[in-house]
What we know:
Oligomer: single chain
Distance between the termini: 45 Å
Strand order of the largest sheet: 8-7-9-11-10
Amino acid sequence: MGIGILIYPPSVFPDAAHGFQVMHSMEMGGGFNRLVVPSQDDITKNTSQFLTWWSPGQYLVPYFFKSVVGSNTGHATALSVLLLALSGLAGFYAFFKKAGFTPVIAALSLVFIICQQAFITPYIFYNGGEVLLFGFEGWFLYGCLSIKKTGWQLLLFVLLSGWLGFFCKSSFIWMYAAGLLCIWLRLSAVNNKINIPNSFKTGMWLAVPAVISLACIYVFFLSRGENPAAISAGFKFSWQTFSFPLGSPLISGFSVDEVMHGLLFPAFTPFLTPAHTIIVLLLLAVGSVAMIAVIIRYVPKNDYRLFLMVFYIVSTFFFSWVYLRQLNISYEGRHFRIIGILIIPGMIYLVSKIKPVYRTVFGILCVALAFVNYTFFVKAYTFNKNVSARGPSGMAQEFIDQPSLDYIMNLDKQNKRAIFVFVSADLPLEITHNRAVNIDPIAPGAVVDTDDYSYSGHAGPLYMLLPVKYAGAQAQMFIKFFPGYKGFTQQKLSSGYILYSAK
């Protein structure tokens, strides 16, 4: 798969696409981690925003390879996916062995990991922080388990792992807390019992570098803008508030959320009715709790059981609080990926102890999971290869066809002061000579405050690419977002896209 995407690079998720826009701004002379775009107050000028919504690693790692190798963004991204996937597999293999599992069970655990759709997804859609976090978190767990005593090594590990983990993905913070809790519990124990003097001593050794690490993250990054944890819609209790985090081992470990294209909020036609979805979610929660309990009861690996229990409890409390406050964090299995990975060696260990007939049933389940997920990979990779358009970035562009993109690239070469407008965050990556505006898609019939989207002033020709389905009222709404431009003309570039121009 890695060789395949080096030939035909993947597409990109919207989150990572916003990061690549920052990278593009930096390449054009903008400051570190600053998104430079046309100002809404005066489109003739630019505005610069420090992007804190996502951590910077998702674009800086491809940026590094792009600079060193001299490739385009697509091939640099493909190389990042390949190397980070290998790093992640190696890290988890090392952790599983360190936790006491045999090389065979550790290796079989990797086989199960590569059957998960979360492992396959970056080869189709680069999802930024998810890729980096997978490449790092296995080594983080290995480091937490390798530390046997307090000292300068502990200080350095706690300090640097906080920075490196956050660099990969901002949501690492809760994993950071869980990992440090595991270290504290292990180093505070004497004869499997918590020793009070040891616990205070260990706590101080952990607290000082952790506070320094988190303080630097806040002062130099998070305090400079908004992030998903900064916006709350108020408290709201629902069945999924607690059941989704509780059900995360099965939801994430067996790709339930990915296979259903979103268990609670499907991207396409839902598999189940809302009422049936809640029932399934409650069953997954009960099944997950039972699985965790059985693993902790019957797998004789104390360190592994400690890590599994602590990470499961911390993730459940953290995300239940997040969902209860309705913070801007989605109900998606990818947020719980580490839980879906941690259950694997314990589950395989238990399966190895049961009767052959049940092992066969489990093997069939694994084969079925692999078949479904790799069927998805083949279809999506074929789409990226044969259907998606490609421009200067090298990324597979699924929200435009090649004739339309060719026309846009030609306009970009012919102009120097034009404004291009898109409704997909990845398309501005193809604009190399002019400025671009990205307006996130607006659902038909949604109540829109025009002032939130308006760009005042006039600055050279404006080219707005919209899907054909936007023609009519929705296209007129987008035209009103640019009151300084009059006399828009329409040009149908292909069966799927229309270009609205005003000069």
